[in-house]
Amino acid sequence: MSAAGTPTPMFRQYRAIKDAHPNAVLLFRMGDFYEMFYEDAREASRVLDLTLTARGKGTDHVVPMCGFPWHQLEGYAARLVRAGHRVAVCDQVEDPRAAKGLVRREVTRVITPGTVLDPAELDAKENAWIAGVAVAGGTPGAAVLDASTGEFRAWQAAATEGEPWPALLEVLRAFGPREVVVPEGFPFAEELRRDLDGVAALTAGDAYPFTLEPAAELLRRHFGVASLDGFGLRGRPAAVAAAGGLLLYLEETQKSGLEHLDRVVVHEPASHLLMDAATRANLEIDRALRGGVRRGSLFHAVDRTRTAAGGRMLRGWLLAPLIDPAAINARLDAVEEMVRDPELRASCRERLDGLHDVERLVGRAVAAACGPRELAALRSSLERIPGLISDLARARTPLLREIADGIDPCADVSTGIARALADDPPAGARDAGVVRDGWNAELDELRALRRDGRAYIASLEAGERESTGIASLKVRFNKVFGYYIEVSKSNLHLVPERYVRKQTIANGERFVTPELKEHEGKVLNAQERIETLEYELYCRLRREVATAAPRLKDLAARAATIDVLSALAEAAVALDYCRPRVDASGTTEIVAGRHPVVERTLPERAFVPNDTRVDADGRAIAILTGPNMGGKSTYLRQIGLASVLAQAGAFVPAESATLGVVDRLFCRVGASDSLAEGQSTFMVEMTETANILHHATARSLVLLDEIGRGTATFDGLSIAWAVVEFLHGRPGGPPRTLFATHYHELTELAAELPGVANLRMAVRERGDAVVFAHRVENGAADRSYGIHVARLAGIPQAVVQRAQEILSNLETDAWGRDGLPRLARGSRGPRARRAAQPSLF
To answer: Under 8 Å CB-to-CB from 151, ≥6 apart: which residues?
Structure first.
């Protein structure tokens, strides 16, 4: 601000830009720094731990400010986004040296939770989704997009999905977006806000782009097509509206080309094995229940991928396995060939080992955010592709042949980068030495002038020393005075008249000559032109890479598929997995099956394998009883994980397995609550059970553990009994079901219902000691051994002994003839003392 209080031109410019982005922290480029002012400065100084200073000190209008160097943008912006802020990056869009008056500035990018591109802020093996939602004709739709890789999918609730709003929530939960963009007035906004609180940021946008016609026009214009039918979007107006609105949001925030968004794919949940959020969590597909970390998950157990894109693809395969037996077996054929041909597997994995994340490198090139070293990484990655194609020439299975035959090595892109970029470029695009000698004639001439200029200075210095007789004379340069001749005090009497005094220093004086000033002009002009031209040439190279984004994306996807198939083969060999037989039968039959995660935490061969057989046409429901710590939950989970692995196209931990494809997998294991929604543990249990009962079909696999335990014994037993009967009587046949329970009364259902059988976890008793064999046997258990587990857990011995006494009373005669309970009868109980009194009758 000026001393009189009138805004300076710079602050008027700042205010105009800030008014256009009121909900974002504005990073205002000033020279080599990004500055923040007013409330933005106060908040940023707190979040980023920057020193809060002020502009206009000593005036009536002191403006708080803080800032950081321009090259630290990505890190500081990411920290602001993590703190819940949007960030508007305002850059100088013209050369300050050429500007007349105030340098023109514009917002070049808006960074939000869903559009962060900084590699340090992204999980290399996980997509960074942003979602958009819309409603058309009362039907919800959604689109999800990964700005870092260019993946773009659209979905619309089907008429057969029942309540559409829960279906929308389930789709969003499945993708786990960082940000959800909703049109203003969206009818389901509060439900989304509540359900996604702490998971995704909710951003409201203009409603107009989220309507059918504007959205369709946006999509047609972006993809350069006359119709969206080729993308499968005919008859899906809500999907179109969501995709178009999300695309416009990305265009407005990124303000750059989006060439890597070259297609939108219809997301069809029904074409994959469906797992709700509870099932994915209970089976620990990609995150362990404890701590929510990757270690301890199925993904972590089987991941042998060598590339980031391969890791993302494997995670996607595990979270959305296939249901088409032909497609599943195509993957299994490819994995089996890799298993049987270790040389092919090893050579492919060696080629892939040096492959950088091509998808995200291309995404950053498209966003004009990648530096020279990232383009060098892309070049080195592309140089490995011809060798990979050569290795795959020996492959015979259809899937491997299809991938190999379709790989475009993008040799022109690789060659273009190699010709233009220095072998070992600097990190920054504006640093010297980015462009290779010989690529641009003008740049070569300017560099030659600069090199010759250095030689000229050395020659000039030697000549001046000789002509003046001053042996210590030096020709030097600094940014303030340019080139000058420095002479010490003791030699000043030898200075010729043609020297023009420039500056007096402590030890002597500095001079210039007309000849030196003329040369300075040439060299400085050459240096400035070199910096400008080199940056322009680099930007041109980056744009050329961006225009090849669709081809590079396809290449990356094919390389990632090879990575996943070879990684699954490597895991199968290393972990002793077998190829499952996957068909359309209703059978789940596993011989010596193991839990892929638990077995890795135990000493070698310590895991006890178990057999499994459930058949929709025969024994469809198995009631599993047995003690706590006997392994019931592990057994249930390993069956579910075997189906996930098999339908993803992977081998399974077993001696052999026949796994009929399942359409939906339900796993209800463990106890949890949702206090924020006012739901108790038992309420959550019943809600999840209700979802299973409403949606399970004859082709589903249902894994239930301890249904009914969250309420009174008789209530819980009654609910569990009714649930089994309901599943058994489902129209079309019962789903394959394993039901673990401590309600031993349920074992009687095996005698009443033809599709029910009993299994038990084996226990061996040795005196008072109990040995859990962790082996599944036919038949029903008669005890739960809970008191033995309490003893192992360290419950005080007095409590254990008293519990044993009460249990004995219950098992012999729980009620007296007077109808009063005898639970507490025993040597220390009050009824024992009362019984010792003489009777009056």
So the answer is: 127, 145, 265
Question: CA-based angle 234:240:245, to the nearest 5?
Answer: 165
Instruction: Give the number of other CB atoms < 10 A from CB of residue 73.
Output: 20
pTM: 0.86
Strands (E), 719-768: 736-740, 756-766
Q: How far apart are CA 215 and CA 238, in angstroms?
A: 10
Q: Note the pLDDT tens digit of each residue in 552-585.
A: 999 999 999 999 999 999 999 999 999 999 999 9
Cα-based distances in Å from 680 to 140, 279, 667, 674: 30, 19, 19, 6
The distance from CA 8 to its chain's CA centroid, rounded to whole angstroms, is 45
φ and ψ at residue 423, rounded to 5 degrees? -60, -45
Side chain identity, residue 703: L
Write out the two tokens for 23: 């909900």
Tell me the C-alpha distance between 500 and 482, whole Å. Answer: 14
* Contact yes or no for 483/458 (Cβ under 8 A): no
* DSSP 8-state symbol, 160: G
- DSSP symbol at 272: B
91-113 burial code (b ≥16 CB/10 A, e <16): bbeeeeeeeeeebebebbbbbbb
Spatial distance between the Cα atoms of 28 and 15, rounded to a whole number of angstroms = 11
Q: What residue type is assigned to position 508 of the chain? A: G
Spell out the SS3 assignment of 363-428: HHHHCCCCCHHHHHHHHHHHCCHHHHHHHHCCCCCHHHHHHHHHCCCCHHHHHHHHHHECCCCCCC
Instruction: Check residue 28 and report its DSSP letter.
Output: E
Which tokens is 649 given?
Answer: 């196209």
Q: Please state, in angstroms and as integers, the Cα–Cα distance from residue 271 to each residue in 126, 155, 274, 316, 321, following that order.
A: 22, 13, 9, 14, 9
What's the pLDDT tens digit per position in 446-497?
888 777 777 788 888 999 999 999 999 999 988 777 889 999 999 999 999 9
The single residue listed with the structure tokens 């039959």 is 589
